[in-house]
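Suppose a classmate hands you a notebook page containing two proteins, each written out with its sequence and a corresponding row of structure tokens. How would you begin to make sense of it? This section walks through that situation. The first entry is reproduced here exactly as it would appear on such a page.
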Amino acid sequence: MNCAENAAPVFEQRRPFLLGLAYRILGSRAEAEDVVQELFIKWLEADRASIATPAAWLTTACTRHCIDLLRSAHTSRVDYIGTWLPEPIHTTHQDSPEHMHELASSLSTAFLLLLERLTPKERAAYLLYEIFDMDYAHVADAVGVQEAACRKLVSRAKTSLGAGHARFQPEPARQDQLLSAFRSAIASGSTASLTAMLSEDVELCADSGGKASAIRETLLGITRVEDFIGQSLHAYWQTCEWLPMEINGAQGVIIKADGVITASMTFGFDEAGRVSRIFIMRNPDKLAGLQDSLDMQ
């Protein structure tokens, strides 16, 4: 067995963690996969005999590459057409740390958007410390700062994120009930069964990237959101195929027309279990990963 073959199992064992970290930092599955693939090549070319702790080395390399990418991504997001949302990913319940409730809730669209408030280093430090449970010394090494500075990064991040309501998720049965009410509203045009499940200040937004038709402004308030669901989405989606799917750690839905995914929908919740945010993805580039997941089923 050659050196590359010896190195591969070490990397593959760490791959799920690296993908999870990169996705949460970048908000893009495609970019996260590119980062991890580039990291694999870097790992094969490294002087591995001098690396005392491969997991720490890989985490540091991944984190710093993502920080650099996030800095450059800021410009492209400023120029983005319409609302920018993280790329939706298909998740499944498994008996592994990646799919524990704490980690799953940190995949939600609402939480990933909340992270946009943070600087790249704050975002990385917060995720490593709060979500992936690394101690300050290891987080500081990964981010490339002194431990005291690292503590300040995490503290500032916590202050910016506030109480973290974006990570609240109701029980699966409640989520299923919500999806059923949404499906009924879109099919019939009546939102009567949906009203009690929406917060008064609910928001709805859509990401098309300028590559599909979608609203460009965020709809605010239960009246405007219900009107849009009962009128516009009823007109657009009533004859489409409706496929429930776990997306970003919670129940969501895929909309297919003529066998092609044209949209996905995910939700954010308040502490009462009501829907406070509705996220519609229409950008075909960002829907491609969901199509890949369907094709593999």
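The notebook's second entry, a different protein, reads as follows.
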Amino acid sequence: MVLIIIQIILLQVAHRMSMNDFAVLSTGRKMPLVGLGTWKSEAGQVKQAVIWALQSGYRHIDCAPIYGNEPEIGEAFQEIMGPEKGIRREDVFVTSKLWNTKHHPDDVEPSLLKTLKDLKLEYLDLYLIHWPYAFQRGDTSFPRKEDGTLLYDNMDYKLTWAAMEKLVGKGLVRAIGLSNFNSRQIDDILSVASIKPTVLQVESHPYLAQVELLAHCRDRGLVMTAYSPLGSPDRAWKHPEEPVLLEEPAMAALAKKYNKTPAQIIIRWQTQRGVVTIPKSITQSRIKENIQVFDFTLEPEEMNQVTALHRGWRYIVPTITVDGKSVPRDAGHPHYPFNDPY
């Protein structure tokens, strides 16, 4: 009953946004509801994907240094964006993230400056703390002990947040936010924040609807961004027998009704909830399709039908193999986010 009530409230709140192609941040800045995700887009492919996206009408590109492709994305920006090139910098919303080895306050600004240099930009529209837990400081992205286990750091993310706030004051970023934080950790940040987080980026798709977390963000003035919105079907650790979200009969039926693809139905479901969505693709036709979701509206019962597919399935969980079984890699860290209900 509580879940149904929350769904109804979210639908009412999101209805006003449903025919717009943007969410409004607490800063007043408009954030396009559909962006191009660049995770798993390899060097040699991502530049063209970004160019196709911008040519297709995208005005939101989601990046991160850990993806290993920001320099190539910067080449795309330099080639297609700027005076006399048809696309103004101020019309494109660019997000990047602070990696786990850079949580020490002294490392936050240098890490951002490296990202700006790679992306060939003077500022970011949004900068996120990528994960709430830290790895050992340094330039090795995944520092390890001799036995192969990761070297962690217990840096308090609230201290990291204070350093993030300084970036706003310097004009290096327009807004700051969080990624992969749970509801308790969001409130922990809010309890000390001089500049409140504007966005929470988390895994979300119909199998992980994040209804409670979305309501929590709404109540606190954060916009939610959904990564892996199509269930990340190309992930290397996908089990061959698990259900494929894009092959769900409900998606096929709705796709047929609206003459859309199952992916477009899922993206429309998210955007109609007011959730920013960043599907990844390097295929020109799919990049074009993924943003063509603002010319139809799902009925309330259809929205609930998609939400009801929720199974609590979280796919993007760093794991290790112990005694032949995959277990969460970082679950022992005090800031590991997925031990909490939401």
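A careful reader of the second entry would note: Residues 127 and 176 are 5 Å apart (CA to CA).
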